[in-house]
Each structure stands twice: as structure tokens, then as C-alpha cells.
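Work Package 3 (structural annotation) set out to generate three-dimensional models for the target panel prioritized at the project kickoff. During this period the team completed the workflow that converts sequence records into C-alpha cells, so that structures can be stored uniformly alongside our sequence database. As a representative example, we reproduce one entry of 311 residues exactly as it appears in the project archive.
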Amino acid sequence: GGAAALLLLGEAVQLPFTARVRTVRRRYGLVTQGWAGWAVDVLRGLLLGLGLALPAAWGLYALTAWSPHRWWLPAAGAAAALTVALSFLFPLVVEPLFNRFTPMPDGPLRTALLDLAEQDAVAVREVLVADASRRTTALNAYVSGLGATRRIVAYDTLLATAEPREVELVVAHELGHVKHRDVLTGTALGALGAAAAVCLLGLLLGLPPLLSAAGAADAADPRSLPLLAACGTLLGALSGPLQCAVSRRVEARADRHALDLTRDPEQFVAMQRRLAVANVADVDPPRALQLLFGTHPSAARRIAAARSWRG
């Protein structure tokens, strides 16, 4: 009950802000979905969060009841295992809740993409098209999943707007993630990070001043739940800039891979310009914002890197 209340309270607090962001994005032509569809998506996300948070809270307090002082040892292992499981299942279970995916139809573009993958010695299991246009006009593509669930996904907005060669460059970037095992590495790092976070939570929940402030006798006391949530949120916020820094390096490496594979910096620059304009991106954001929140190099830096590669 406490876990559900915290999740619902968090959703209620942030809902006006997400609605405001959506209003601004709609003003710039980035949103195609109606408010009713958006509300359904919010409800889906909330139910998904409850489906994950409630069993996790139950399992966590079962462990604290088993050992109020050593619960974090098995919990760290469970958090790592859950991270790996979610990375494997996300494309199969979560993504279809929000988008429909269809195989890219046969044609010159699909053939070119498969040839590109073969040239890169990457076994592509699936190339799918996501129906992103029913929500947004933004352009994107990505790679997700592990092993049998690995797939490259392109937004239908990208296929409808970009030149075929630009689509090839976007996919070449995604092939770079596969080639360098970025999903596997990211999953491993995420599992280690989740385990480390649980260990830190175990340390924090063992501090008498914090427990006293929460009105809890020990970690097994359900009244420690708000303290646990607060500490977890704080750790997540503090780790955010580090995660963004790692992500920027990974994305820059994938850009270099795309350039090495296609040897077409002019089209790479054209593709970056198209993405920046279509997504209404800040092409050169303030350094502080980029360090705190930027998961990709800025468009200006990506274009500069392509010109440097050409040189």
C-alpha cells in the first residue's frame, strides 16, 4: 500500500509538468496524438510501474524481515538479475504496449540496410518500423534487446521524411551499437550499478539518524519506505551526469562507426541537420545542461566531428 501511494503521489506531482511540456511540444508541431491517447499512455505507464514496484517492495521487505542488517546482500544480487531480465524482456513486453512494430517491407532500402549490416559483419535478426507518427513528428531509430530479442527499429516518420541514404546513415549508427556490444555492455553496467545502489541504500538505511527521522525502528519497519524511496531518488539523480557522460561517449563512437562504414560525411552532416530541424533540437545547448542531461553529443559537435573525420 505504501509503495502504491508513493508511486501515485509521484505521478500526481509530475503530471502537470508533463502536460505542460506536451503542450509546448504540440505548439512546435512535434505532437500528433490527442489528449485521450496521451492519458491512455500515462495510465499504461502507471500500471506498468505498479506492476514492477509492488512485487519489488514486497520482496525487499521480505528480505529486511529475514535480516534487518544484511538484507542488502541478496537484494543487490536480485537487483542485478532484474536489470538483465528487463533488458532482455523490454523489447518483447514493454515496447509493444506503446507502439506497433512491423517488418520493414522488401525494397531497395531494406536491401541496402541488410547489405550494410552484412558489410559490417553484424547479424541483424530484425529490422522493424515503429508507428511513431501516431504520437509525434520527431525522427529517430534505435537498437534494443539482447540475443534473440535484438532488433533495429526505425520510426516511420524517419522513413517518410529522410532520404534513403540518410536512413542508411542512421542505421549505420545503430549497427555501431551492435558491433561494439553497447546494449550488452550497458546492461552489464546497469546491473553493476543497480547492485551498487542497493548496497549504498543498505548503508544509508543502517544510519540511526536517518531511521529516527523516518520514525522507523530499523530497515524492516515499513515506515522506512519513504526514506528508502528518497535515498533511491537521490542516488539516481547523483548518478545521472555520469550516465549521460558514458552515453555521450558511446554515441560519439557509434557516429564514428557510421562514418567509417559509409564513408559519406556529407550525407552524415545532412542527416544531422535534418534530425535537428525535425526534432526542434537545441543544436548547441549550454554546457551545464549538456553535462547534466545530454545523452548525445550536440548536433554542432556531431557535425564538427564528421567534418574532422573528412579532413
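Strands lie at 101-103, 127-130, 141-144, 151-155.
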